[in-house]
Structure formats: C-alpha cells, structure tokens
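Proteins fold reproducibly. Take a tokenised chain:

. . .
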Amino acid sequence: MAFHAFPKVVSAGFVGVDVFFVISGFLITGIIAKPGFSFADFYLRRVRRLFPALALVLAATMVAGWFFLTPREYENLGRQAVASALFMPNLLFWSEVDYFDSAASAKPLLHLWSLGVEEQFYLLWPIVFLALGRRARWGLALISAASLSLYLWSLKADGSAAFYSPLCRAWELGCGGLLAISNSRLRKRAGLAAGAAIATLFGISFPADEWHVAPIVAVACAVVLIVSEPSRLLGGKAAVYVGRMSYPLYLWHWPFFSFLFIASNRSPSTAPAFAALAATFVLAAMTHKWVEAPVQGSPQRSFATALSAASVALLGMAGTAVFLLAGVPARFPTALQAILSYERYDFAADALRPGCWLRRSDAPEDLQQRCISGSSGAIAVWGDSYAARLSPGIRAVVGAAQVSQFSRDGCAPLVDGPVTPDCARTNRLTLKRLADSKPGIVLLFAAWDSYGADETSRAILDTSLRTTIRQLKAELAEPNILLIGPAPRFDRPLPSILMRNWVSQHWQVAPERIVVDRRVLDRVDAELAMIARDEHVEHVSLLNVFCEGSNCLTAVPGKEGELVTWDYGHFTTAGAVFAARRIAPTLTPRNDNTVARAPAGRKNGPR
C-alpha cells in the first residue's frame, strides 16, 4: 500500500505480494495436510472468507465507474469484474499487455491479479497435493523447481508472463508449502539459508528496482518470518488488528489510487495519497466489522455462503452487461457520444497494420513488398507508430502509389542509438530497402520526445539521428530528407480529456483547441531543427502546424467533432490528412538539398 501511495519513496514495494504468496502457501498447505481434510469444507470456507468483501468492492467500483469513466474505460472495468468473478483477473491482465494497452494506474481492479493467482492455487493445489500422497514433498519440490525455471526463462522471453502467470508464481507458493510439510530441523536450516541469501544479496548492493531479482529476496524474507519466533511488533494488538482486516485493506486501496490517477492522469500528490490511505483504513474497518465478521460468525453459514457466492455471480453478470453494452455510452449527451466514439477508432486498417506497420511481435522480414513503392521520386515514410499514422494522410495527398511505408511500434528511424535490438535490426534492413528502392524523399518522423526526454537520451538521439541522415545520403546518393518534428502530445487520451472537461465545465460543444504543455516538445523540436540545419536537410515543425502558442487543435478546423487524435497523439486519418496538406509544399523532390521554405504554420520557428 505504501508503494502504491508513494512509489518514489517506497521502491520495490511489490515484493510484499511475493512475501504473501510464500506465507499463503505455508498456511494453506498446512490446512490441507491435516488429517480429516474435507474438500467441501475447505472450499466453503474460502467462499466465506473471500467473497463478501470482494462483492462489496466490486459493486462500489462499478458504481463509481458509472459516473467517472468513459465508455471504453467502463467497458474494460466490466471485463475486469467478469474476470474477477471467474477467478481469472491475472489471465485477463496478462492478455491485455500490448503496445496500445492503457496505463496500469487506469485499471481500478488491476490489483486483483494476485487474488486470481491465489484462487487458482486454492482450486488446484488440494487436488494435486492429495494426489501426490506420500510423495508430496518430492512432488512439491519438483513443481517448485519447474516453476522457478519457467519464471527465470520468462523474464527474458515474456516479462508479463513472469508477473501474471500462475505457473511462474507457483514456486513462491511451493516454497511455503515445502516449509509446511517439513520437520522443525529442516525449517531452521531453511531459515538460516534464507537469512544468508538476504545478507548476500544486500551485501552485493542488491538493486531494489530489479523486480526480477526482488522476488528471490522476498521469498527469503518470508521464510525467515515463518521459521522465526513471533516478535512483539508483529504480535502486538495493533499489528494483529491490521492483520485481521488486511484483506479488505488490500481490496479497497487500489481503486482509490486508480480513480485518483484517472481524475488527474498523474500519481496522487502527498495530501491526496494520505487521504486515500485514511479512507482505505476506514472502509476496511467498516467492511471487516459489518461484512466479514457477520458472515464468518453467522449461525446460518450455508445461507451466508450461498449469498456471498450469489453476490459475486450477480456482479459478474453486471460486468458482462456493461461489457456487452460497450460501456453504456448512452450515459452521456449525443454530442459527447460522438467524441467518445473515437475510443474505438480503427487505427490499424488504413495505416496498413500489420504488413507495413510492424508490431513488436513481428520480425523485421515481415514487412510486405506492397509497402515499397516502385515509382520514381516516391516518398518513403520511416518511423514508429506515429509515422505509421501519418502515412494515410501522405497517401491521401500525393497518391498511394507514390508512398513507401517503413514503420514499427516503438522504433525511431535510427540505425543505432536509443532503440531495442529488434528495432536496430529492423532499421538496418529498412536502410537497405531504401537503398534498393531509391525514393525521392525520405520522411523521418517519430514520437521524438519519447526517445529524447532527458539530457542523456537527447545527446544519444542527436548523435544517432545525425549518423542516420549521413548514411541515408551515402546510400541513396543525396536524397531529399524531410525531418518532421514532434506532433502535440496530450497527457491522456484526447476523448478522455474532452469528456472530463465537458462534464466538469458543462460544455455544450468541445473546444477546437485546448492547452498543451509544450516545454519538452519545444526543446526536442528545436534540437531537431538544429540537426536539420547542420546536416542540410529540411525540418518541419508540426507543433506550429497544430498549435497557436500553447493552444493545440483537438479537431480539424471547420470540422467539428473530427478529432486529430484518438489517443495521446497518434493521428486519426483526418488529422493525418490535415498535417499532410499543411506540409505538402515540402513533399516534392528538389534537385538540390538545401533547406527549403517552411510550410504554412511555421512563422516564428520553434516556440
């Protein structure tokens, strides 16, 4: 909770979940190993323990979402509620990891991923443990070793699997289980080994932000906690009271922080964070007193269990309805619904994704031949996803047959520098394809501020971009190179900004322009202009095309409701066409390579 409230102060706080998994494995395996274990009693107790508070939090979150979330956000919340009711939220969040996935902080039920791992453990482990019989210790050791191996492999192959997959988390639960069925002498040895491991890792300056190493330290800490004698601190009344309501604390805290993030699009400052923690404790105490304790102590346990299960099932059905109704856009006025429809914008089809716009999972060789124009004097658009979304506008203005497209998610058009190995390989192959096809103009465009946000990365970007331009000139025999400066970037998806301002400021019509923080964008744009001057290539500032001072377009001028972007800054087709028409004078190959006149909108240079 402290990590979620103050992530810059309490780094690597997520290891608390790893500690919890080990302790949970210890406690649950101890229950299963006792003589007279009953499947029915075990599962009914899990329902009474987990479902009442879960149903309350799901209901409260769904009600809050009705008032504060956009249709797409509310639809996603409905999907999360369904997954939570079906014991698989971790699998849902794992499947959603994607280049265009929404921020983690904007998912009010994201924290339930760990509950999903727990519930899957509850469902499967009693069956597996009892099936192993006398071989349980060896079987558990093999399962844990296999899970740890899979975890270590997944760190490089698929980091999201290492985080969300129950198979990659089983080794932590298994470590606790092994302690539960080991004799006291072995437990003491395990405690000594774990203490030595902690001392060693911290002694070699253990990097707290390396989350793939942190679980190993967390497991060692959990082992020490389990085998140690109870301390006055952990056995005191205050700690025991907090422990008793730890489950509702866990359930309530993240929705508070998530909605605070959604409201301001930034982590809450100190005062709101403390207020959220205080509200969490109050609601958790109320939930424990008036929901958990009555259900646990009810003389009619069968009825309480059935009611708890029915409540979660009904909320799962409510989530299904919200999902099927696409987030219920009818909650909003008709004019606002038109704006919010951009949340479902088809950004892929006319930007030729996949094929010419490669995804992160695609190989560099997956670029199709249709992406390369055979026309003399063709325009080659090279860059990341932002360049891919500019391409439909360029094709509309100069003709599709005249345009080549070389784009990949997260890959700036750089032959070296601040790019991943896959990007570097893609860009080297792109340079070769450009040399073979010899376009008349090479247009370089990307979300440049993403690659040059700080001083160090800007220096690397400067060197890499200069090297790329020089290699293009060498390989293509002095082509016309057009360096496109960054486009406006919003601090959250534009439809979300307009919706929240519409509701809070009682708009009747969305404004054509809104204020955008241009400080980083202007700095990067000015540096690109300097590189262009030094390397004798053309530079165009899209900031001056789309903005007047700090006021930047939300929609195409004269076309109310035709947004220029559906998210933070990727162009819609209407936005791309508007940009292409404004820079059209630069889209004609010239015989010399001197800096040409600036397009309309570029009057005073970078601001």
